[in-house]
Q: What sequence folds into this?
């Protein structure tokens, strides 16, 4: 397989044709992952986006070595996760999606005990401070709030100084301020050289953190690119919308200014075009169209500056 | 073309060479670290202290106080006080609580809440995890038994054996019983379907066996079929082995077979140890059943 975009030497993660199905002969089988390809270069932050049930967590758990696979090639840090040993586990960090395993240990004790298993761990107190839990360092983990637990999860994931960090929906349940400080933490990890594979529901999180975004739907990759180019130029074409004789009209164009100028010229003596908006599709708009949540391709889902009534939101027309 | 400064191929802190340069910590050392974690969690968990650790001591105190003034229990003209008669059963129960019950519940809960899965994601060797459980069981059972014997001797005036041969018997029954109980606990931890049901699923069989194995009642008071059934399980033999340590030899006549049966005790406990070891290692899961 020499035709890959990344050579195996430079890929932290290399996945080709990954397949995983669930079910029994009685209930029938469902493909959770149906021929998925994925590359993550060393030092890169890649965000995997997709609706619930798209196969994100299954894929990540296969890469983490928790699950077997039914087909395809997987190399994580050059090894097959299903056969990799302790030395390999020492090089990865895992922040799982749901964790309820809180105990009578304090935050610092838990981080310290976890760090003991690694050959070259980070300092436990520094890690606790880095995730913003220094006030809770000596508190029992059982008493932490949801957001604090999640930050402890992250601390436990990074204390081993991983080369590759898996973050499975890390900021679910965070308040906006906690998300901001978490993003700063992830950015500092990247500056430290950590490769990060992130799954998330939050488009702004992907836009903020990721060098590259991969959109997964029904177990396959449907699009990938930087947050700025995802979906291709077509999906990014601005939409100009206005009202003409009480009817809402819109047009996609690469030259929205020229169109607006024409509209102004054609408008009445005061040069006012009713309900005029110029909208550049956001990452969220592009994402929703990729996963098939919007059927109406003419109008973007959001018309932020539009205050006219009678504009049917595209989302309600989705098939 | 040389690398640019922000090239992703020049990580500062996570270079493969650096992690390989240092060796992974040893399995034994990590087992002791885990043991420290287990002990700290155990002593901070009030439930485990009250229902596991203190239970046999409290039961001994209650029964000895309530029945202490009754007539001594006599077999063939040899008599002992109630506390002495009750002590061997409580020692055996304490061993099973600190090994089987503690491990089965804690592992079931840790599997259910994802602790085991999280440990599996770290370079911690599985052997170190189990070593930590052994440290927990061994420490609690030693302290518990010592306290039990101290309370019996100092508060209830139970004469402890002064014959070294009896202490030798105590040693092997104690060690074999502890090992068997611990391995049974690990194996049985896969039975409860969830962490919430673990306590009930784990405690109930042991509680029933306490009544049918001659821990609370003398085996001579139990119907034959009940003794036969209980004889399939380790607790009956553990209690019998402890009776051979703490009761006069004349009491052997009161056993169902009329003898202490040291050989059978060793054989049954060893059989459970081996079977549970085989079953346990084959059925052990790091994840919940519903988690793929």
A:
């Amino acid at each position: 397989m020499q035709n890959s975009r990344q050579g195996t030497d430079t890929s932290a993660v290399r996945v080709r044709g990954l397949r995983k199905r669930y079910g029994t002969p009685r209930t029938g089988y469902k493909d959770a992952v149906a021929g998925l390809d994925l590359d993550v270069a060393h030092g890169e932050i890649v965000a995997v986006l997709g609706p619930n049930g798209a196969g994100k967590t299954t894929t990540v758990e296969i890469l983490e070595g928790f699950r077997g696979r039914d087909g395809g090639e997987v190399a994580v840090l050059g090894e097959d996760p299903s056969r990799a040993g302790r030395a390999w586990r020492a090089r990865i960090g895992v922040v799982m999606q749901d964790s309820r395993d809180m105990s009578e240990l304090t935050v610092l004790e838990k981080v310290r005990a976890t760090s003991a298993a690694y050959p070259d761990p980070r300092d436990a107190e520094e890690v606790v401070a880095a995730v913003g839990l220094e006030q809770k360092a000596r508190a029992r983990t059982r008493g932490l709030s949801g957001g604090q637990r999640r930050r402890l999860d992250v601390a436990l994931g990074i204390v081993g100084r991983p080369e590759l960090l898996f973050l499975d929906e890390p900021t679910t349940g965070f308040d906006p301020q906690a998300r901001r400080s978490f993003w700063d933490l992830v950015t500092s990890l990247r500056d430290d050289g950590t490769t990060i594979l992130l799954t998330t529901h939050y488009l702004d999180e992907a836009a903020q953190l990721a060098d590259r975004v991969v959109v997964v739907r029904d177990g396959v990759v449907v699009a990938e690119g930087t947050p700025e180019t995802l979906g291709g130029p077509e999906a990014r074409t601005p939409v100009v919308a206005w009202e003409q004789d009480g009817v809402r009209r819109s047009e996609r164009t690469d030259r929205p200014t020229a169109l607006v100028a024409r509209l102004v010229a054609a408008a009445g003596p005061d040069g006012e075009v009713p309900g005029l908006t110029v909208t550049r599709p956001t990452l969220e708009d592009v994402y929703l169209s990729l996963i098939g949540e919007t059927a109406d391709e003419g109008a973007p889902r959001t018309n932020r500056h539009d205050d006219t009534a009678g504009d049917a939101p595209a989302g309600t027309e989705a098939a | 073309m040389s690398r640019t400064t922000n090239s992703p191929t020049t990580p500062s802190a996570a270079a493969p060479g650096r992690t390989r340069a240092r060796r992974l910590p040893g399995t034994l050392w990590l087992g002791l670290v885990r043991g420290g974690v287990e002990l700290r969690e155990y002593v901070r968990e009030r439930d485990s202290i009250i229902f596991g650790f203190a239970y046999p001591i409290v039961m001994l105190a209650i029964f000895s106080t309530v029945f202490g003034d009754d007539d001594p229990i006599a077999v063939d003209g040899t008599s002992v006080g109630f506390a002495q008669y009750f002590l061997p059963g409580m020692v055996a129960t304490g061993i099973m609580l600190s090994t089987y019950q503690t491990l089965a519940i804690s592992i079931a809960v840790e599997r259910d809440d994802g602790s085991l899965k999280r440990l599996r994601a770290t370079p911690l060797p599985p052997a170190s995890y189990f070593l930590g459980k052994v440290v927990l069981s061994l420490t609690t059972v030693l302290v518990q038994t010592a306290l039990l014997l101290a309370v019996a001797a100092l508060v209830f005036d139970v004469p402890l054996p002064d014959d070294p041969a009896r202490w030798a018997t105590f040693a092997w029954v104690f060690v074999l019983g502890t090992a068997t109980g611990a391995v049974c606990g690990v194996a049985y931890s896969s039975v409860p379907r969830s962490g919430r049901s673990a306590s009930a699923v784990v405690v109930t069989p042991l509680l029933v066996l306490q009544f049918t194995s001659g821990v609370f009642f003398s085996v001579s008071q139990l119907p034959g079929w009940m003794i036969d059934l209980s004889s399939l399980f380790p607790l009956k033999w553990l209690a019998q082995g402890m009776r051979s340590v703490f009761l006069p030899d004349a009491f052997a006549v009161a056993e169902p077979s009329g003898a202490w049966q040291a050989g059978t005790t060793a054989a049954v406990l060893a059989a459970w140890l081996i079977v549970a070891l085989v079953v346990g290692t084959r059925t052990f899961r790091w994840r919940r059943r519903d988690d793929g």
Remarks:
- Chain A touches chain B through 46 residues (CB under 8 Å).
- Chain A has a mean pLDDT of 84.
